[in-house]
Specification:
Blueprint lengths: L10 H5 L8 E4 L2 E4 L5 H18 L5 E5 L3 E3 L2 E3 L3 E5 L21 E5 L6 H12 L5 E6 L4 E5 L6 E3 L19 H6 L7 H5 L12
Parallel strand pairs: 7-8
Antiparallel strand pairs: 1-2, 3-6, 4-5, 6-7, 8-9, 9-10
C-alpha cells in the first residue's frame, strides 16, 4: 500500500503550535508526538529528576528539567530529562529561567517506553551529542539496561546492579549505580539522598 508522508512544516511554524501532552518533537520537517509515559517510565523520570536536583541544584552546579523542549540544529526535541550546567541555563533579563531553550542539554537522558522506536530515540541522543551535549543516557526499563553515549566513543552498556554509571564531568560528584535506577519503580530508594546528607546510601555519594 502506498503511504503518503505527512506535509512538512517549518521549525518556526512548529514553535508556534500550542503545547500538547504528550509533547511533540520536530525532526526533519515532521511533527512527531512522543508516547504517553507509563508507570515505570514515569516513576524513573520523576525520582531521577528529584535525586539530581537534590544533589546539585542548591549548590548551583546543575539542574535537571523533565520534558523540556530544546531547539537547536534545526530540530526541536524533548528529552525525558535535560540536565544543564548552572551557567548554561538560559535566563531572562531579570535572572529567572527563560521559557525558550535554544541549545542542547549538557546531559540528555531518555527513558524508553513500550513500543517506542529505539532507533528514533538514539537518533535524538546522537543529535544532542553532535551539538555540544557531553553525555547521553538511554534507560531501558523493560530490559533493565542503560546505554551511555559520549561523543566520538562507542556506546557502553550497563546491566549489573552494582555498576556505577558514568556521568558528565560537570556533575562528577554524583555517583549512581544501576540498581538504584531500577529500584525506583518500588518507590524512593534513597530518602537519605534527598533529606539527610549525613546518612547517604552507598549508591549515591556526594562529597
Amino acid at each position: 500500500m502506498l503511504q503518503i508522508a505527512p506535509p512538512s512544516i517549518s521549525l518556526k511554524d512548529f514553535l508556534d503550535l500550542p503545547e500538547t501532552k504528550p509533547a511533540q518533537e520536530y525532526v526533519e520537517g515532521q511533527v512527531i508526538q512522543k508516547p504517553m509515559p507509563q508507570g515505570k517510565h514515569s516513576v524513573i523520570q520523576g525520582e531521577l529528576v528529584a535525586v539530581i536536583n537534590s544533589s546539585l541544584k542548591n549548590r548551583k552546579i546543575a539542574r535537571a528539567f523533565p520534558e523540556l523542549c530544546c531547539t537547536f540544529g534545526g530540530r526541536s526535541t524533548v528529552p525525558d530529562l535535560s540536565v544543564f550546567a548552572w551557567s548554561n541555563i538560559p535566563r531572562d533579563t531579570d535572572g529567572k529561567i527563560a521559557n525558550f531553550f535554544p541549545l542542547a542539554p549538557n546531559w540528555a537522558i531518555e527513558i524508553l517506553s513500550p513500543d517506542q522506536s529505539q532507533t528514533r530515540v538514539i537518533r535524538n541522543i546522537l543529535h544532542c551529542l553532535n551539538h555540544g551535549t557531553e553525555m547521553g543516557w538511554l534507560i531501558d526499563p523493560a530490559e533493565q539496561i542503560i546505554f551511555t553515549y559520549i561523543p566520538g566513543e562507542q556506546p557502553n552498556i550497563f546491566d549489573q546492579a552494582e555498576q556505577i554509571l558514568p556521568v558528565p564531568t560537570f556533575v562528577s560528584s554524583l555517583q549512581i549505580n544501576l540498581g538504584l535506577i531500577f529500584d525506583l519503580k518500588m518507590g524512593c530508594a534513597y530518602p537519605a539522598a534527598c533529606c539527610d546528607w549525613d546518612k547517604q546510601p552507598q549508591s549515591i555519594r556526594i562529597p
